[in-house]
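Hey Z.,

So I finally got round to the UFG thing we talked about over coffee. Here's the setup:
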Amino acid sequence: MRTESILLTGGLGFIGSHTAVALKNHFKQIVIIDDLSNSVMNNYYRLKSLVGDCLILYKADIASQNVIDKIFLSHNIKAVIHYAGLKAVGESIIFPAKYYYKNVYSTKLLFEVLKKNKITNLIFSSSATVYGKPLYLAIDESHPVKAINPYGQNKIDIEQMIFNDPYFQEQCSVKILRYFNPIGAHPSGLIGDDPKGIPNNIMPIILKVATQEHQELKIFGNDYQTHDGTGIRDYIHIMDLVEGHVKALDYNKKGIIVFNLGTGKGFSVLDLINTFQEVNKVKIPYSFVERRSGDVDMVFANPDRAKTTLGFEALRSLQSMCFDAWNFVKKK
Ligand code: UFG
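And the result:
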């Protein structure tokens, strides 16, 4: 009989919602706290149809102390995955104070509650953005960190908060997961990447072009040092990424450990567009524009630590990422 529950902060977002599905049979209750700042209630109803009655939503900000306290009083929370936060890089440059408050300060408050409630199994949702401009490839977890924007600095600040805290060091099993570029969707097509407002990341933009809401994709730069001149990234299927979370949750060794979650393979923007067009038989018109400030030629992970320590390997193909992403939009 399962008696334990898990808390997912920001659990209605792209990664959190897919994790909730993957954890369905692992916990008695999957409790989400989400302020819906980048999600809508419809995402919750769709998620509920996949996860069932064990899914419980608290519609609130993680900084709402009374709500957080109520969650820990009402549920037997044994593990926490902390996703909640703002994630638009461009916006973080315009509103750095807001980003600091919502990402770093709110996390500090959350961590105090975790300590008070003696939570010892924590996953923090970090990002490969912490590596900044790569000094070498493939990027392993020992690569130095250096923020190139406030959002990246927020992730570094939170990682440091974890590393410097004796409670996390001595009494917990903390897994810091640095994601590369998650795309794709759940194969049911019920949940996927559905950001509010104008999307920033490439796959949601490709999908807007595919549905003709946007006229074309603007490719940022065609003069990078890559095989076709466009930027290379390590795209990972969201279903692989969340399997990495499940493995990380099961890894209960005391201490703080960082894992890259990526495939170790890089694909260019043109590789991605061509694959999307071939797999889905949909045309993606594009044009080349200036490089986007802060972008780099090439980023891909060394995923060895997750493989050897967690037994996790991301194996789904770029084809499957493109197929599932489009399947989600077609079914919306
Ligand atoms: N790109 C375009 N046109 C667009 C959007 C993106 O050409 O309209 C290109 C970018 O130049 C880049 C690639 O598509 O070469 C991927 O760009 P994304 O914005 O999708 O992703 P990034 O690699 O820039 O950043 C993402 C997340 C970060 C995260 C990082 C981890 O946005 O939060 O991956 O590597 F930290």
